[in-house]
Amino acid sequence: MCHVTEEPEVKSRQSARFEDRFINFSISIIKLVTENRAVPRSVADQVIQSVTAIGANYAEVQNAVSRADFKNKIGISKKEAAETRYWLRIIEKLTDSELLFPYLKESQEVLFILQKNVSTLRTKSATCYMSHIFLFNSGSVQ
Q1: What is the pTM of this model?
Q2: Is the pLDDT of residue 133 over 70?
Q3: What angle do CA 23, 91, 61 make, to 5 degrees?
Q4: Crossing angle for the helix pair 67-95 and 101-137, nearest 10 degrees?
Q5: Where are the domains of the chain?
């Protein structure tokens, strides 16, 4: 069986930092759209729903019951981040505001963080699979 080499407390500190970052991002978007009257209510509702789902699903990742559950929740968080970026681009065009640049930048960074998680899972899965193949072919696994 493949094991994660990262210390659990390091992993949980990093997870807590990401969760805090996602919470702060959600709060900043909520404030942005509720304080800006140029954003239609339907668009504001959509972006609030998607941005808060990023962190909510990431929080669920910390209590995943299986590797598949973990991958699923990370995948959902990533999809919600992409949707948030989409809504922010619409808001940018509706308001014709360059003030959205930091929000768009943060949405892209959130996507990169989540993509790194997805890529790491794929790499670890491939490494584990190749390790098992090597052990089996070398006669170490019966």
Answers
A1: 0.77
A2: no
A3: 30
A4: 160
A5: 8-137
Burial 111-124 (b: 16+ CB within 10 A, else e): bebbeebeeeeeee
- 3-class secondary-structure state, position 44: helix
Q: What is the pLDDT of residues 79-117, one digit of tens each?
A: 999 999 999 999 999 997 788 999 999 999 999 999 988
Quick one: 62 exposed, middle or buried, by C-beta within 10 A (0-12, 13-18, 19+)?
middle
Taking residue 57's Cβ as centre, other Cβ atoms within 10 Å add up to 21
Pair 21, 109: CB distance under 8 Å: no
CATH 3.40.50.2300 fits 8-137, yes or no: no
For the cut 50, the answer to whether the pLDDT of residue 68 exceeds it is yes
